[in-house]
TrEMBL record:
<dbReference type="GO" id="GO:0031419">
    <property type="term" value="F:cobalamin binding"/>
</dbReference>
<dbReference type="GO" id="GO:0005615">
    <property type="term" value="C:extracellular space"/>
</dbReference>
<protein>
    <recommendedName>
        <fullName>DUF4430 domain-containing protein</fullName>
    </recommendedName>
</protein>
<dbReference type="GO" id="GO:0015889">
    <property type="term" value="P:cobalamin transport"/>
</dbReference>
<feature type="signal peptide">
    <location>
        <begin position="1"/>
        <end position="22"/>
    </location>
</feature>
<dbReference type="InterPro" id="IPR051588">
    <property type="entry name" value="Cobalamin_Transport"/>
</dbReference>
<keyword id="KW-0732">Signal</keyword>
């Protein structure tokens, strides 16, 4: 129950507030093109997806839209402490035994940075590429 409340608060905090003046607050939300690159460090596989979504949509919503409209697939779990946790992409899951996971990155121009939030809270920006990189730790 507490996790549901936390998740809902996270989503609510990310929603725009219509009616506060100006186009960005008029209830008329802009659409943005979101590009998602899926890479696998071990096999050098690369697949790219893109879709138009409402500006401010969390990555979880973007991934659900991709899953509904394209050949993209993902699974997730809900962690009581941390929220939505990405488990697998296109049938490939992270593994504690193999020390593999899906690293979430953002590419803006030539700069790539690791995200400090997950798919439940992250909002992709215009002219950014969201990268899901299958890799290892340790």
């Amino acid at each position: 129950m507490a996790l549901t409340a936390i998740t809902l608060l996270c989503f609510a905090a990310l929603l725009p507030f219509p009616g506060l003046g100006g186009k960005e607050h008029s209830g008329e939300l802009d659409m943005v093109l979101v590009k998602v690159d899926v890479t696998n460090k071990f096999t050098n596989n690369f697949v790219s997806y893109s879709t138009n979504v409402t500006e401010g949509m969390p990555m979880f919503g973007v991934l659900n839209k991709l899953q509904d409209t394209q050949s993209f697939r993902f699974t997730y779990s809900i962690n009581k402490s941390y929220g939505i946790f990405l488990e697998s992409v296109n049938g490939l899951a992270g593994s504690t035994a193999n020390k593999t996971y899906w690293e979430l990155l953002s590419k803006k121009g030539k700069t790539i940075t690791r995200l400090n939030v997950g798919i439940g809270c992250y909002q992709p920006k215009k002219n950014e590429i969201f990268i899901m990189n299958y890799t290892t730790w340790g």
